[in-house]
C-alpha cells in the first residue's frame, strides 16, 4: 500500500512541477548529490558520455544511462530549444524499485 501511495504523491508532484532540464558537466563522473529533478549530461572531450538522474519514483537511487555509440545498453538524448530532455528508449530498472518510465520533453511518463 505504501508503494502505491508514494507513486500517487510522485505523480501529483510531477503534474504540477516545472519541466526537468539538463545540467551540463564536463568529465565522466556524476556529481554527488544529483539535482532533485534535473538530469545531468556528462560530456568528456566534447562527446556526450552519459546522463544521470535520481529515480523519479522517490526511492532516491541514482540512474546512469550511457550515450556512447557501440555500448549496450545505450540511450539517445534530444534536448529541445527550451532545454527539456527526451530520452529513448524508456528507462526500466531491473533492481530495487523496478520503475519503468519515459523522459519526454522534460516530463516523466510512467508506463
UniProtKB/TrEMBL annotation:
<protein>
    <submittedName>
        <fullName>DUF6527 family protein</fullName>
    </submittedName>
</protein>
<dbReference type="Pfam" id="PF20137">
    <property type="entry name" value="BubE"/>
</dbReference>
<dbReference type="InterPro" id="IPR045384">
    <property type="entry name" value="DUF6527"/>
</dbReference>
Amino acid at each position: 500500500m505504501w508503494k502505491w501511495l508514494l507513486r500517487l504523491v510522485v505523480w501529483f508532484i510531477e503534474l504540477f512541477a516545472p519541466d526537468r532540464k539538463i545540467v551540463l558537466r564536463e568529465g565522466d563522473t556524476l556529481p554527488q548529490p544529483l539535482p532533485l529533478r534535473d538530469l545531468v549530461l556528462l560530456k568528456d572531450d566534447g562527446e556526450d558520455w552519459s546522463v544521470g538522474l535520481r529515480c523519479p519514483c522517490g526511492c532516491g537511487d541514482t540512474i546512469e544511462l550511457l550515450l556512447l555509440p557501440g555500448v549496450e545498453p545505450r540511450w539517445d538524448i534530444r534536448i529541445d530549444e527550451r532545454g527539456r530532455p527526451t530520452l529513448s528508449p524508456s528507462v526500466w530498472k531491473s533492481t530495487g524499485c523496478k520503475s519503468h518510465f519515459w523522459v519526454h520533453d522534460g516530463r516523466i511518463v510512467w508506463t
